[in-house]
Amino acid sequence: MNAGALLAAARRLDAAGFMPSKSGNLSMRDGDGFLITPAALPYADTAEADLVRMTADGSATGRRRPSSEWQLHAAVYAARPDANAVVHTHSPRATALSCARSGIPPFHYMVLLAGGDVRCAAHATFGTVALANNAVAALEGRRAVLLANHGAVAMGATLAAALTLAFEIENLAGQYLDLLAAGLEPVLLDARDLAEAAAQFAGYGRG
């Protein structure tokens, strides 16, 4: 398990303004459990030894308390064998949309990075099993979700993929809000448009 990579990713998100006031959390699958960032510790002050090893049932090993959202991470790993990393942010534009309880519709083909339109999960108090369950339900068939009045979650087969998706969700949220602020109605891509874009993605980068 590359604890250094997890910590570097957390600091990168923090530097980008995605983790205000010690918010947000990241994890990586580790055998039958996962490694997660600690609770209430600024990322600039976090060391690799502060990361917490969790089992699926909530047992923690380490010198710090795990993030209050450990149940969210555990639920995603239990439901999604394709997830090897989970990134939860409070990035400004995605969080703004979540406070309107709005998802991100398919106005741009880059929603395909998330598997399609980005849904907004039903509201639940942070750090609860209800929040975890709502997030998993909204993630069905998707790799990212907004949490109502809270923030965003991105998962990936790798930490790099989850990190890239977290940045793209914020980018899409900003574009969508800019359209709405300009009084413009986004023209949404239909299923055929998205299927054609997905086919292009499948061959992207090949010689």
Keywords:
207 residues; alpha+beta; L-fuculose-1-phosphate Aldolase; eight-stranded mixed β-sheet; 6 helices; 37% helix; Fuculose phosphate aldolase; Aldolase_II/adducin_N
Kindly summarize this structure in a few lines.
The chain has 207 residues and is of the alpha+beta class.
Question: How would you portray this structure in words?
Answer:
It is a single chain. The protein has 207 residues and is α+β, with helices and mostly antiparallel strands. It has a single domain (3-202), classed as 3-Layer(aba) Sandwich (L-fuculose-1-phosphate Aldolase). Helix content is 37%, strand content 16%. It has 6 helices and 8 strands. Strands 4-3-2-1-5-8-7-6 form an 8-stranded mixed sheet, with helices on both faces. Strand 1 (25-30) and strand 2 (33-36) form a beta hairpin. Helix 2 (70-79) runs parallel beside helix 4 (129-138) and helix 3 (92-99) packs across helix 5. The longest helix has 23 residues, at 159-181.
Task: Kindly estimate the percentage of residues that lie in beta strands according to DSSP.
Answer: 15-25%
Broad CATH class? Alpha Beta
Helical/strand content category: alpha+beta
The helix content is 25-40%
Separate helix tally: 6
Largest sheet: 8 strands, mixed
Neighbour order of strands in the largest sheet: 4-3-2-1-5-8-7-6
How many structural domains in the coordinates? 1
Topology, number of strands: 8
Task: Return Rg in Å.
Answer: 17 Å
Categorize the overall geometry.
globular
- End-to-end separation: 33 Å
CATH superfamily: Class II aldolase/adducin N-terminal domain
Instruction: Return the string of H and E elements.
Output: HEEEEHEHEHEEHH
